[in-house]
Amino acid sequence: MSPAPADPAAEFRAELIRWAARDQGNDTRDELLRLRDLVEQARTAGVDLAPIVAEVAELSSTEDRYGMGSTRDLLLRLL
């Protein structure tokens, strides 16, 4: 039996949670590039981004670690 087809929305949500958990890592600029790639892949797959982004933003840090906004702020800017 072949594996079940991938669920792009679930995959995007899981990747976005992993992205948010890194809380901007060591360099916000690198993380913003990764976020841009994640969003582009999800859009291409037809994922409705807004509810997933809003959900993950609620779980994300509000600390502005590097002066570019908190992880929550960075996500909410996508909406």
Give a structural overview.
The protein has 79 residues and is mainly α. The chain has one domain. It has 4 helices and no strands. Helix 1 runs parallel beside helix 3. The longest helix has 17 residues. The radius of gyration is 13 Å and the shape is globular. The mean pLDDT is 94.
Largest β-sheet summary: none
Task: State the separation between the terminal residues, measured CA to CA.
Answer: 39 Å
Broad structural category: mainly alpha
Q: Give the tally of structural domains.
A: 1
Determine the mean pLDDT: 94
Protein name: ANTAR domain-containing protein
Structure characteristics:
4 helices; mainly alpha; 79 residues
Give a concise summary.
Helices cover 61% and strands 0% of the residues. The chain is mainly alpha-helical and 79 residues long.
Helix/strand layout:
Layout: H1 8-21, H2 28-44, H3 49-59, H4 71-76
Helix pairs in contact: 1-2, 1-3
Organism: Asanoa hainanensis
Protein name: ANTAR domain-containing protein
